[in-house]
Amino acid sequence: MYGNGPVFKAEGTSFRDQPYAEQLPQGLWTTGLCDCHEDAHICVQTAIMPCVSFAQNVEIVNRGTIPCMNAGLIHLALGFIGCSWLYAFPNRSRLREHFALPEEPCRDFLVHLFCTPCAICQESRELKNRGADPSIGWLSNVEKWSREKVTPPIVVPGMIR
Q1: Local confidence band at 23 (pLDDT 50, 70, 90 cut-offs)
Q2: Per the domain annotation, does 79 fall within a domain?
Q3: What tens digit of pLDDT does each residue of 36-61 get?
Q4: Domain extent for 124
Q5: Are 8 and 145 in contact (CB under 8 A)?
Q6: What's the predicted TM-score (pTM) here?
Q7: Does 18 fall in a domain?
Q8: Average pLDDT of span 127-132
Q9: Could you give the number of structural domains in the chain?
Q10: Are 10 and 154 in contact (CB under 8 A)?
Q11: Member of which family?
Q12: Which of 4, 79, 137, 143 is surrounded by the fewest CB atoms within 10 Å?
């Protein structure tokens, strides 16, 4: 939708110097909450197994500190009792902090409480639009960024474990 270039800042350059910097809205989501149709693969995967899509997002947003398998199993277990949103909404908050995105259309916990599949899809699309591929995992993305001379987003202070 907004070009193919990653949004992660290359070494030694400012964000505005990037050739793709103007292609994405700064401080805005690149897709809407209900734009699931924009990526059929993510939409179908999330409809069938939301824990997989969620887990892939978690691994990227948390920079590999939470393994995909662990996040997926926790999400699945909580889903059986209808509480997966409790585990999911903090990840949305972290994603928003990484990219300075607004809390819309409402609070993160409400988005996940009432629209978990749509929220997971939107978060996956956001990561893809900003240069990360959740389906390949954190380490593979780091390798890809290294080859392309691109660095991952800077973690906001206070988010480091």
Answers
A1: low
A2: yes
A3: 889 999 999 999 999 999 999 999 99
A4: 41-147
A5: yes
A6: 0.80
A7: no
A8: 90
A9: 1
A10: no
A11: Belongs to the cornifelin family.
A12: 4
